[in-house]
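Figure 2 data, in text form.
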Amino acid sequence: MKNFTTINLKRLNSQQSMEFITDFLKAAGENEKVAAKFTNPISSLQSANEELNRQIQMVGKSYLTVDVWEAKANLSKAYSALYNTVRAMSIYPPSDAAALSLRRLLILLQTYGVDSDIETTTLKNMTANVIEDLSSDAYSGDVKTSGVEMLVKSLMHVHDVFSAKLLERTGKAIPKGERHLKESRVKAEKSYRDLIGLINASVTMEATTDYDAFIDSWNLVVQYYKQTVIAANKRAKTISKNKKQEEAPDATTEVTDIVTDEAGEGASEDESETLDTQAV
């Protein structure tokens, strides 16, 4: 008797999970015995997966989300440019006065420890605090002495643009009650597991081989997802982590630079309209 190979769907992102279930539904529909025996649970899974797909499209097509991604990327670049310039100039300052000012600015930026993985609203607030400090009487002289006025002004400008885009997105957000990507994904994946469980149970209780060909075929698909899709997700995560570690400054100037994600911001559920790109 055959049984389905299990897979941890949490290792997939929402788009991949939806595609995985779509592949299963296609395979199940093409198998006459499976389609005839499990008509109702297949229909339930189809409905749940269609809703998951609708939620993904609702989130992914938002032009406001794309604008926010771009604005956040520009903010990341502006902050990194300021920090890296201050850090580089500190290595060989042009004067004693500049050395003191650069040291003060570097300590300030290190204290905030801004990182690209910070949630959007938190990033906005943290950079606002950095800008407020740099503009204050305590640090404005250091900014001028260090010669980084233009970089600070650039940071101010992109922060204003980023804040405006966030405000616009909030005002035109998907109406409350219509957005439930996480819940839709949980429901679809549970429906898949329930259906797999039903087929496994039928195989055991009926001692039948009717579904062996289907199970063997689908297990190959599961193997592909494990070895290719999930493995690729793991590699991407490892590469991202190693890249950050390699770019981290030495212990004497410890701070994490912002690194722009060229693929756009990951779709965490706590960011109002972003489509997740990391496993949930």
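Caption note: Residues 11 and 181 are 16 Å apart (CA to CA).
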